[in-house]
Design brief:
Layout: H1 10-14, H2 29-36, E1 50-56, H3 68-73, E2 103-107, E3 110-119, E4 122-130, E5 141-146, E6 154-157, H4 158-161, E7 173-176, E8 187-190, E9 194-196, E10 199-204, H5 207-210, E11 220-228, H6 241-244, H7 246-257, E12 267-269, E13 272-274, E14 279-285, E15 288-298, H8 302-308, E16 309-315, E17 318-324, H9 325-328, E18 338-339, E19 343-345, E20 351-353, E21 357-359, E22 362-369, E23 375-386, E24 395-400, E25 403-406, E26 412-420, E27 423-434, E28 450-454, E29 462-463, H10 467-470, E30 481-482, E31 486-491, E32 498-505, E33 511-513, E34 516-523, E35 531-541, E36 546-547, H11 553-557
Antiparallel strand pairs: 1-11, 2-3, 3-10, 4-8, 4-9, 4-11, 5-6, 5-10, 7-8, 12-23, 13-23, 14-22, 15-20, 15-21, 15-23, 16-17, 16-22, 18-19, 19-20, 24-35, 25-35, 26-34, 26-36, 27-32, 27-33, 27-35, 28-29, 28-34, 30-31, 31-32
Helix pairs in contact: 2-7
Length: 565
């Protein structure tokens, strides 16, 4: 979607006109699949360069922060309260995050709402949508027009294309969660790469057909896309692409859903006791890359141990990872099975990480016990392989912070992380405790939107439609789910008091930044109840990059919340 937000990157793009684009490798569908299934790719500065942005149905009334204080105080009633109107917010926090389009076009007698439009070489890399609570038999048609061709390269009912198997099957198209009380209360996801050489436009024609139906609540959508530098050679997606590359597609699906088998792991330990205040560490020398990290711990209070045990990793003398064990592996402090492309936890509590973590000379991995109980490392495995460090190589970073009893009386934008430097943002885990005692189903804490700023832009190039939408599900469903890019190991705090842990990990939709990066999540709780709110963030960056997160030893030592007090 070409708009004023994208022009913040114009000077950066113009700088590429000085380069010889003939040296750039062609962007093709199979090469995007290769990039998708090679975890090392995100640890390298991208060539050819791309900028990642998002088109969405966010409220167009959210224009600026001029009246932020007044917008934060605006309140008409609880979300879902039968006795008062729904609270839609206003200004920067306005919440009509659905059925927003660029324009409406008349095409062959039908009205098509333009959701997304981009000019220049690029690729769609994520498509999420929800259709407002109406049954699947209703719903419009998505049409994708590529390179100015008036005939769509894809024309398909929404339920078949995004989430369904009409275009492509799992794991490229999936529901989150797979099952819910109502089939329409699930996030629909498509992570199939769709490259284009000159332009791409996506339209939807269901709004004008079905918005009058009782129960219609709007069309919510998010489309993440890459914009390559002008001159980048891209082979456009066509009607034969999936058939032509069916073998490559099947192989990629297998890699995305099956953890790699690890044989002859270089470092293996078991039965290691780590007393309070002590640590266990392993050092690796030489130019290499850690590509497998696995552990299982035992403690009297396992929930506390998952929070109070910290993963610390130092690369070439610089500590870039400092994160509680549980959130590093995507489960917060309550162990539940889940599996994404980068992390996995099984029913036995065995935790595995497949993040690629390269370094030039040496790395030191430590597990530090900041708690008041002994922990036992029942199993620990670290695998690494030789890796050439180049001018494109970046270090892996993981940060963590927590705000206990976060005040939600006024709406606000909560900062996950802000970074100064050059790198790629690749994901996060959000773990929280919802403290409000309501159990009637209107205790949803995450109505707020993500707002992501790249290279100090004035307006976010990623403006979301709801916290659960960012994490790929919908309608605050509490059911657990797993997928290559997102998971919810536990969601009991979504509708009742309790713990929730959400993961969003980026593959093709990693966000490069050349100068800086900032991630805010809008805080919106219907009952204005306090929450324990802790995000962990993951990114790659060149040496010298800095973020605004400090070590919080007292925070990881603090007693975790499991029940109302």
């Amino acid at each position: 979607m070409k708009n004023s937000k994208f022009h913040n990157f114009l000077p950066l793009f113009l700088s590429f006109t000085l380069l010889s684009f003939s040296n750039f490798a062609q962007v093709t569908f199979p090469k995007l699949l290769e990039e998708m299934t090679d975890r090392k790719t995100l640890s390298l500065w991208p060539e050819p360069f791309y900028q990642t942005s998002q088109a969405s149905s966010y409220s167009r009334k959210s224009v600026n922060k001029d009246n932020l204080e007044a917008d934060a105080k605006y309140f008409t009633g609880n979300y879902g309260d039968k006795d008062t109107p729904r609270d839609w917010g206003q200004g920067w926090f306005e919440n009509h995050d659905f059925s927003q389009y660029i324009r409406t076009e008349l095409n062959q007698g039908r009205k098509e709402d333009v959701m997304f439009e981009d000019f220049g070489p690029g690729a769609i890399v994520r498509f999420w949508a929800v259709y407002g609570g109406i049954p699947d038999e209703y719903g419009g048609i998505y049409r994708l027009y590529i390179d100015g061709n008036p005939i769509p390269v894809i024309e398909m009912y929404h339920k078949n294309m995004v989430g369904g198997a009409g275009l492509v099957g799992k794991p490229f198209s999936f529901f989150a969660p797979e099952k819910a009380e109502n089939d329409t209360w699930r996030g629909r996801n498509l992570i199939l790469p769709i490259p284009y050489a000159k332009s791409c436009k996506i339209t939807y024609d269901g709004e004008h057909k079905y918005s009058h139906i009782e129960g219609w609540k709007g069309h919510y959508y998010q489309i993440n896309y890459r914009s390559y530098a002008q001159g980048t050679e891209v082979e456009s997606f066509n009607t034969n692409t999936l058939k032509t590359y069916n073998r490559e597609l099947k192989e990629a699906a297998k890699i995305l859903t099956h953890s790699p088998e690890r044989l002859n792991v270089k470092i293996q330990e078991s039965g290691i006791r780590v007393k309070p205040g002590q640590s266990f560490k392993k050092k690796i020398m030489g130019s290499a890359m850690i590509d497998f990290f696995q552990t299982r711990i035992k403690a009297h209070n396992m929930e506390q141990a998952l929070r109070s045990t910290v993963v610390s990793i130092t690369f070439d003398g610089e500590e870039t990872v400092w994160c509680p064990l549980g959130q590093f592996f995507g489960i917060g402090y309550v162990s539940r099975p889940h599996q994404t492309y980068y992390t996995k936890v099984d029913a036995s509590g065995l935790m595995s990480s497949y993040w690629a973590m390269p370094f030039e000379k040496e790395a030191e991995v430590k597990l530090i016990n900041y708690g008041d109980q002994e922990i036992i490392l029942e199993e620990l495995a670290l695998d690494h392989r030789p890796n050439e460090w180049t001018d494109l190589s970046m270090y892996f970073h993981a940060t963590w912070k927590e705000t206990r009893s976060l005040d939600t009386k006024l709406r606000s934008d909560y900062n996950y992380v802000s970074i100064v430097g050059k790198g790629i943002y690749v994901g996060d885990n959000l773990t929280l405790y919802n403290s409000f005692p309501d159990t009637t189903g209107i205790n949803w804490w995450g109505e707020g939107d993500e707002k992501i700023y790249v290279d100090f832009e004035a307006f976010p190039s990623h403006f979301g439609t709801g916290t659960e939408d960012y994490y790929c599900y919908a309608y605050c469903r509490p059911q657990p789910f797993s997928s290559p890019i997102a998971s919810q190991p536990i969601g009991e705090g979504n509708k009742t008091p309790g713990v929730t842990s959400n993961n969003r990990q980026r593959i093709l939709d990693g966000i490069p930044f050349s100068k800086g990066f900032s991630f805010d999540m809008e805080i919106w709780h219907p009952h204005r109840a306090p929450m324990d709110f802790s995000p962990a963030t993951f990114y790659y960056a060149f040496r010298g990059s800095q973020d605004n997160i400090e070590k919080d030893i007292s925070g990881v030592s603090h007693k975790v919340r499991l029940h109302l007090e």
